[in-house]
Design brief:
This protein has 119 residues and is α+β, with helices and mostly antiparallel strands. The chain is 28% helix and 29% strand.
């Protein structure tokens, strides 16, 4: 089992609507997607962001594109027009989540390094 940062395994895209941040994480293949569903939980995402996410974190599976979509409620200090934060938009949350470390089985890591990331 290897400890890896998400940035070494997946792609992400994030945005915002009001006080909610939306982060989608895209797996490179079905095997990694199945593993992410077990280890990248709403609780893990909420813990990663700490006090930046005041509300609940919801996770939605999007299997047709091998993605997990997280909605982080109460994450933007009230939203763009209400917040006193310097960067109160959700676009930075995807980059931040890419720093999260997860355990990845050696066979999945070897598969990715061997170029087996295609779907």
């Amino acid at each position: 089992m290897a400890k890896v940062q998400l940035k070494d395994v997946v792609l992400a895209r994030s945005g915002d609507k009001g006080d909610t941040c939306d982060i989608s994480v895209f797996a490179p293949n079905e095997a990694v997607y199945e593993h992410l569903k077990r280890v990248l939980t709403p609780e893990v995402v909420k813990a990663h962001f700490g006090p930046w996410v005041q509300g609940e974190v919801e996770c939605f599976e999007v299997p047709n594109v091998l993605a997990l979509k997280f909605l982080c409620h109460g994450a933007l200090g009230g939203g763009a027009s209400s917040s006193l934060r310097l960067d109160n938009l959700g676009k930075c949350f995807g980059s931040n989540l890419m720093r999260l470390e997860i355990d990845l089985p050696d066979h999945l890591l070897n598969q990715l390094h061997a170029g087996g990331e295609d779907r």
